[in-house]
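Methods — Computational structure assignment.
A single polypeptide chain was analysed. Its primary sequence is given first, followed by the predicted tertiary structure written as structure tokens.
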Amino acid sequence: MPGLPYERFTSEERIRLTLMAATREDWTELKVLAATCPSQSRVGPHMSYSLRFLRLTMMVQAVLSRWVEASAWCLATGSGVAVGGGRSTDALWKQASASWRGIEEGIKKFCGEAGNQLSSS
């Protein structure tokens, strides 16, 4: 987009323009928006730490999400709530509770190993 003051866009304006350019598949505009984005120096934790911590956080959230989902299935099928799919509530409950127990065992094992590592350091 000729004539636009790319350097003056706020973060919100830049995000909106980026989303619109991506929708249009305007790769040139996307490159210009990225290239003209103001940069700033950053002082903080080393990037390798930050990335590892982010990945750990995402994995924990994924496990907790699966655990909550399995818990919901256990509650729904254990209380006799009708669920579709042509399978009996009992079979679904057994599958959900086995999944829930597996996730819980994995969490216990992880916490035990983490506790052992912390106490030995």
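Note: Helices lie at 11-24, 27-35, 47-78, 89-120.
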